[in-house]
Structures are given as structure tokens and as C-alpha cells.
Design brief:
About 40% of the residues lie in helices and about 20% in strands. By secondary structure, it is of the alpha/beta class. It has a 6-stranded parallel sheet. The protein has a 4-stranded antiparallel sheet with strand order 3-5-1-12, covered by helices on one side. Helix 2 packs antiparallel against helix 3. It is elongated.
């Protein structure tokens, strides 16, 4: 599995935040212009529901790009579990800047915390096993790096980052190459040292992938009994990954077959945002609580 590069993540954060601000602010926040330019304010952001936090860097980057004079103070860390009404962060600065950045900052935090919360739920279910839960490339367009970071905050792991860092040889690749063995042989020649994973749909294909020296064999929609047989057959010679339609109801039985990995697209593609709220206090004005 491929760890996220800190530099790649940092650049992605800067670029994706800039895009989110361009689409939200456009030529300028005309509503914030109603507020006196010198008016200062403080704000705190709370969660209305239990959650796992992810996305601090994106919130910080929103306010850095809008107005570096805004001070953001965090009460929690990424990966922390939080309870309803708990304060996540406070911020202070020009009222215009706080209000202009509010929605973009909360969009990032609620979305990435939603991913982390779901991942933590799934990871907790299989904590008694040795399996690692993996994300997939089924991410929201443009949010690949951010979502994959949030996955790790929730106790799960990243599969390949994209099409460039590892091979995943599927049915159509095999058909085009002529066989599993040919596909693996060519992969070793094209990018020596890159992980080579092969998707298999039955025990015969598993045997072929094993004999050809795959690093990881994906068991696509294998039955529980077939997964157990595959674990016995492979006996640690390579890693096994279960995939295909795995959900809350089937997750634990699959984990208990002894596979090394389970990949689950729903960790990132079916995001349910965490419900957050910003409470603003204007200096010299009433405190809304």
C-alpha cells in the first residue's frame, strides 16, 4: 500500500483550497461588504453530532489564503473522537474575513470528518482481527488526496494513490495482455519495484496469479468459503485482498476469513458530512452563545 507523501498532500491542500475559494468567493463577497472593514470578531466551531475529526490543514489554509491575520486555535487534533456540542476550533480576526471563510472552511472540515468518522466505524468493527481496511480510487473528483488523508485519520489505510504508483491488473488488462502471467511479466519490465496486484474471480485465476509471482491477489466477490480456501492455499506467499460489495453486514465475516486486506469503496464515495456550526461573536456586540 502507498503512503501519502507529505509534500504531495501539502501541495494538494493549497491547490484544492484555492479552487474552493474561487468557486465560492468569485469576484468578491458582497454580503460581507455590509460589515465595517475594521470590525473584528471571534468565532467558535462546534459539532452537533459524534464524529472523528479530519481536515485541520484545510481549514487553516482557507483562512491563510483569505486573510493571514486571522488566528485559528484548535481544541482537537485530526483523528480525535468528539461529542455533540464540543468546540473544535476558535478563530479571531476581521469579521469580514471570518464570514467569508466560514462556508469553505466548514465544507472541508465536515466532508473530511465525515470520511474519517465512517472509517473509524468500520475499523472498530474489525479491530479484533489482523485485517487492514483499504480505500479505493472511488473518491470525489478533485478530492483524492484530501479524502485519502481523512481515511488514515479514521484508522483505515490507503490503497494505491492513483494509476501511477502501483499496478492493479484487472479483467480487461488480462484480456488485452493474453494472460495473468503475461500481464505480470510486463509489469515487472515496465516498472520494476512497483507493487503488482492482480484481480481474480475464481480459484483457477488465483493459482495462476500465485504461480506468476503477484505481490497481492485480489479476491473479487469470492464467497466466505472460497476466501478461507484462498488463505489456506496462499499460506503467506503473497497478500490477499477481499473486494466487491462488502458492507457493514458482511465486513466482520470477511475479516475473520484471514485475508490481509479488505478494500471498500464506500469509505470515500458515499460521504455523509458531519453537522457543524459556527457561532460568531462581534466585538462590541451581543454574544450569540
Amino acid at each position: 500500500m502507498t503512503p501519502l507523501s507529505e509534500e504531495l498532500l501539502r501541495q494538494s491542500c493549497i491547490e484544492s483550497v484555492a479552487l474552493s475559494l474561487r468557486e465560492d468567493i468569485g469576484s468578491g463577497d458582497i454580503t460581507a461588504a455590509l460589515i465595517p472593514e475594521r470590525q473584528r470578531a471571534q468565532a467558535r466551531v462546534i459539532t452537533r453530532v459524534p464524529a472523528v475529526v479530519a481536515g485541520r490543514a484545510w481549514v487553516d489554509e482557507v483562512f491563510r489564503q483569505i486573510d493571514p491575520s486571522v488566528t485559528v486555535t484548535w481544541a482537537v487534533a485530526d483523528g480525535d473522537r468528539v461529542a455533540p456540542d464540543q468546540t473544535l476550533f476558535t478563530c479571531e480576526g476581521p469579521a469580514r474575513s471570518l464570514l467569508t471563510g466560514e462556508r469553505s472552511a466548514l465544507n472541508w472540515l465536515q466532508t473530511l470528518s465525515g470520511v474519517a468518522t465512517r472509517c473509524r466505524e468500520f475499523a472498530d468493527q474489525v479491530a479484533h482481527t489482523g485485517v487492514r481496511l483499504l480505500d479505493t480510487r472511488k473518491t470525489l473528483p478533485g478530492l483524492r488526496m484530501a479524502e485519502k488523508y481523512a481515511v488514515t485519520c479514521g484508522g483505515c489505510y490507503n490503497h494505491r494513490i492513483g494509476l501511477w504508483d502501483a499496478f492493479l491488473i484487472k479483467e480487461n488488462h488480462i484480456a488485452a495482455c493474453g494472460s495473468i502471467a503475461n500481464a505480470i511479466r510486463q509489469a515487472r519490465q515496465i516498472a520494476p519495484g512497483r507493487p503488482v496486484e492482480v484481480e481474480t474471480e475464481n480459484m483457477a485465476e488465483l493459482h495462476e496469479a500465485l504461480d506468476a509471482g503477484a505481490d497481492i491477489i485480489m479476491l473479487d466477490e469470492f464467497s466466505l468459503e472460497e476466501m478461507k480456501a484462498a488463505v489456506s492455499k496462499v499460506a503467506g506467499a503473497c497478500r490477499l485482498e477481499a473486494s466487491g460489495g462488502i458492507n457493514r453486514d458482511t465486513l466482520v465475516p470477511v475479516a475473520e476469513t484471514g485475508v490481509d486486506y479488505i478494500s471498500i469503496g464506500t469509505l470515500t464515495k458515499d460521504v455523509e458530512a458531519v453537522d457543524l456550526s459556527m457561532r460568531l461573536h462581534v466585538e462590541g456586540g451581543p454574544n450569540p452563545g
